[in-house]
Amino acid sequence: MQALKNADLIINPDGSIYHLGIRPEDIADTVILVGDPQRVAKVTKHFDSIEFTKQKREFITSTGRIGNQRITCLATGIGVDNIDIVINELDALVNVDFETRMLKEQHRTLNLIRLGTSGAIRSDLPVESLVAADYGIGFDGLMLFYHQQLNQKAQGLQSSFNGFLKELNFDFPITPTYSHASQQLIDLFQGAEWRHGITATATGFYAPQNRMIRAKSIVPDLFNLVEPFEYDNLHLTNLEMETSAIYGLASILGHRALALNVILANRPTGAFAKDPKALERKLIRSFFEVYI
Question: Which SUPFAM superfamilies match (predicted)?
Fold first, then answer.
């Protein structure tokens, strides 16, 4: 393989990668991904020590330790376009030699764990629920630009959901994509407080998630359409804006990924959390109780 071109792997003068502004030595093997930059401090308050915190644009990275375990928290911002940047640059940081611009001979695997907020698309999933996504379905289109080899479970989801849409005689506005979380990480979050399901990822917040203020959605009955779907004893549980890209890119690049979300809104019932910040803290606390 030839060295990566300067325009493909952009390295800043200080040796940091282009968008994230961090160097290879800055990243721990476990990376907590949060959308909201303000959530980084809420995560790192659980650290015993913090080595550094860096910000470039909306991307905030903080690495520290809990006991002997080194851990990184990184704010991605909102949406799959940001996830495309973050996952590719994290992988480059750990699997490309920045001096030679060549791939390293020994692959380094990261644990990429999203701690996010989400809306339930089932009436039986109340606000305050904690959801671990065994699968992701992308209604966003990002993974259509990548060569992706689905594992057996993701292939099964693809076949099942495509068949489901065909039976409905429903042409979704974009071709869905499919992915599976790391089974190793899924197995950690099997306690009674964790609801498991299939997370759908939208390309936007309003019409793509069936929200209408003045501009109208072309799928106003989206939730009623997808509610009956079931695969691997799981239902489509929630809708957000990052999971499918995290899972898809992690599978391509050889990393482990899992998305954990707290439900702030129940879309079918119209309910919304009275104290979203308290639920955010609940998710973070529940994650650390299991993972550390």
Answer: Purine and uridine phosphorylases
Assigned token pair, 96: 């490309």
Residues 6+ apart with CB under 8 A from 139: 172, 174, 176, 200, 201, 202, 203, 208, 244
Q: Read off the tokens for 144.
A: 């259509």
Residue 25 CB contacts under 8 Å (≥ 6 apart), including other chains: none
The bridge status of strand 194-202 relative to strand 130-139 is parallel
**Rounded CA separation 212/220 (Å):** 9
Q: Are 49 and 63 in contact (CB under 8 A)?
A: no
First to last CA, the chain: 39
Q: Which amino acid is at 235?
A: H
- pLDDT, position 282: 97
pLDDT tens digits for range 125-152: 999 999 999 999 999 999 999 999 999 9
d(CA 176, CA 63): 35
Note the pLDDT of residue 172: 79
Q: Are 200 and 177 in contact (CB under 8 A)?
A: no
Handedness of CA 292, 234, 150, 250 (dihedral sign): negative
Find tokens 């099964």 and name the residue.
156
Measured CA to CA, the distance from residue 292 to residue 128 in angstroms comes to 22
Give the pLDDT confidence of 3-38 residue by residue, as tens digits: 999 999 999 999 999 999 999 999 999 999 999 999
Helices 243-253 and 80-95 pack at an angle, to 10 degrees, of 30
